[in-house]
Amino acid sequence: MKLTELQKGQVAQIASMDGNSDFISRLMEMGFSNGLDIRLIKIMPFEGPVQIRIRNFLVSLRFNDADKINVKIT
Prior knowledge:
By secondary structure, the chain is α+β, with helices and mostly antiparallel strands. It has a single domain (3-73), classed as SH3 type barrels (Roll), CATH 2.30.30.90. It is 18% helix and 39% strand. Strands 4-3-2-1-5 form a five-stranded antiparallel beta sheet. A hairpin with a 2-residue loop joins strand 3 (50-54) and strand 4 (57-61). It starts with 10 loop residues before the first strand and ends with a strand.
């Protein structure tokens, strides 16, 4: 399941991250890693930014970037 498929307020664990090594490195620098809990706060309309809570921080990602993060519901 993709991060962008979660419902508002739903919690899931990061299962994997797709993309090239630069993209994955950038996510890891922002605190993303497999097995971490992630909560979807909101998705802006028309495939706008996605706001999530991870490690007690709020992070906004482009919709296309968030769509590359695979999660599993906990």
